[in-house]
Amino acid sequence: MKTLFKKSVLDLDGYTAPPQHQVEAKLNQNENPFDIPAELKQKIFQQASQIEWNRYPTYESPRIRENLAKLYDVHPNQIVLGSGSNQLLVILLSAILDSSKSVLFCPPTFGLFEHYSSIYQANIIRVYRAPGQDFPIKEVEREIRLKKPELLLLDSPTNPTGAEIPVAMIEKICEISSGLILVDEAYAEFCDNSVLPFIKRFPNLIISRTFSKAFSLAGMRFGYMVGDEKVVEQLRKVNIPYNINLFTELVVNTLLENRSALEGNIRFIKTERQWLYEQLCAIPNITVYPSSANFLLMKVPDGKGVFQGLKGEGVLVRDVGSYPLLKDHLRVNVGTHEENCIFIDKLKSVISTF
Q1: Residue 346: strand pairing partners
Q2: Which of 23, 164, 245, 287 could form a disulfide linkage to 314, CB 3.0–4.6 angstroms apart?
């Protein structure tokens, strides 16, 4: 049976989900620690009971695209929707990449960039950026000029480091590249910078965002891309028909029309991130990096040992030691203040044994 599958698929390890069971502090999946407000849930449930579930949802969810277009001052035809930004990454790569095409990204970065680029057998160009280091703009510029990649995959803030790519550098990349540039802004609501305003200037720029983080919808899976109308037209051809179900459509529109109900949670996460950073900085034998996302990256004496020690104490963080340049690094997302205090207390105890 193996002969039926592409070699690029057989060679992959496949995605492995991190632990998801109930613990004292679950801080391993960059989730928002706050659920949707109860009053909004009740409003959604009431509306859901009045929908005909035996009918398909509206094609390409025009109301969602109109709400997003109004929010970002673009045309609805500049937006394509997906069941999570990961699904949109797949349609982008399937529309562009094959064995004759090149793709550039900057590890350590979002793991699915490499995963899916490998499946499409693209020529992968890697320009590395160590945690705590400046974005390697000169190296990226050189690779663009020499190899002319058809696609560049960037994320800002970057997962798993939390570092931003300065908008002026992304602007420069858009100016010199003949390929398409995807900027994944999954964590944009937790930082102060975005390249969304560049959409009007650069037809080769695409931005992806998700509702899994700031909007507390990790369990529902919804994301979107914004780009030039002609580019989005091609992506819509590859997208899965009716990929936004009735309930997701209802929830997303409700949240877009009640964004103020979530803004307090975003402010809390940004403030708590600073508190968590300062607490980690005070622990000996740990290096923690500034972050513009809802998580922090830290280097510890023994990544696997500290990870297992925390897990044994009921605290889940993410071991990212398998990423390039990240041996003995762990990633922890901002939780509730109670969860964060538990994490700091348990980490101090575990670290003291190394």
Answers
A1: none
A2: 23
| DSSP string for 160-223 | TT-PPPPHHHHHHHHHH-SSEEEEE-TTGGGSS--SGGGGGT-TTEEEEEESSSTTS-TTT--E
What pLDDT is attached to residue 20?
Answer: 65
Query: In this structure, is residue 8 part of a structural domain?
Result: no
Both structure tokens of 58: 């509206």
The CA distance from 184 to 109, in Å, is 11
Q: Which of 3-12, 172-181, 263-272 has the lowest mean pLDDT?
A: 3-12
Domain identity same for 211 and 252: yes
Region 168-184: mean pLDDT is 98
Phi and psi (nearest 5°) for 108?
A: -75, 130
Beta partners for residue 124, in sequence order? 103
Which residues span the domain enclosing 291? Answer: 15-30+261-351
Lowest mean per-residue pLDDT among 7-16, 89-98, 301-310 = 7-16
- Considering the chain, what is the average pLDDT of its residues? 95
CB 198 within 8 A of CB 226: no
Tokens describing residue 112: 């699915």
pLDDT digits (tens, 9 = 90+) for 232-263: 999 999 999 999 999 999 999 999 999 999 99
> Backbone phi, then psi, for 182, in 5-degree steps?
-95, 125
Q: Which two structure tokens, joined as six digits, stand for 92?
A: 């982008």
Query: Which CATH number fits the domain that encloses residue 53?
Result: 3.40.640.10
Bridge partners for 347 per DSSP: none
Please check whether residues 276 and 167 belong to one and the same domain. Answer: no
Of the candidates 66, 91, 76, which has an alpha carbon nearest to the alpha carbon of residue 234?
Answer: 91
- Token pair recorded at residue 335: 């939780």
| Per-residue pLDDT, 8 | 80
Residues 201, 203, 204, CA angle at the centre, nearest 5°?
Answer: 120
First to last CA, the chain: 47
pLDDT of 48 above 80: yes
Q: Of 256, 282, 297, at which residue does a domain stop?
A: 256
Beta bridge partner(s), residue 207: 183, 226
Whether the full predicted model's pTM is greater than 0.90, yes or no, is yes
pLDDT of residue 12: 75
- The CATH number assigned to the domain holding 340 equals 3.90.1150.10
**Dihedral of the CA atoms 185, 188, 194, 199 (nearest 10)?**
50
